[in-house]
Design a protein that fits this description.
The protein is an all-beta fold. Helix content is about 0%, strand content about 45%. The mean pLDDT is about 95.
Length: about 120
């Protein structure tokens, strides 16, 4: 399984940004998680899309201003983030588990993208 996040970006506070994660090498629907690590902080879960359950989870830090979705045609998972704040500045990673589960902990995810930088100023 390979996960690739094409690009992040630098935006002004209050603006929006959409991250994408292209997955390959799997055949069954996989849950996909978005995690981030800010400088000096632990990696934290941001959003999870449970593809079989057709539901999503969001951390309190982004709930209400973010949306996670998946496009089956191109095996891409998106994280739309709106009303961005300076505290959203971090390296963002998409991740998938070897077997689907409901965990939001980074340690429970097996496949990781290389990460993409998001900077909000």
């Amino acid at each position: 399984v390979q996960l690739v996040e094409p690009r992040g970006g630098s935006v002004q506070a209050g603006e929006s940004l959409r991250l994408s994660c292209v997955a390959s090498g799997y055949t069954l629907p996989m849950n996909m998680g978005w995690f981030r690590r800010a400088p000096g902080k632990e990696r934290e879960g941001v959003a999870i899309i449970y593809r079989v359950l057709r539901s999503t989870w969001y951390s309190d830090s982004v709930k209400g201003r973010s949306a996670c979705s998946h496009d089956n045609d191109n095996n891409t998972t998106y994280l739309q983030m709106n009303s961005l704040k300076s505290e959203d500045t971090a390296m963002y990673y998409c991740a998938a588990p070897r077997r689907n589960h409901c965990s939001t902990r980074a340690s429970d995810y097996d496949y990781w993208g290389h990460g993409t930088q998001v900077t909000v100023s």
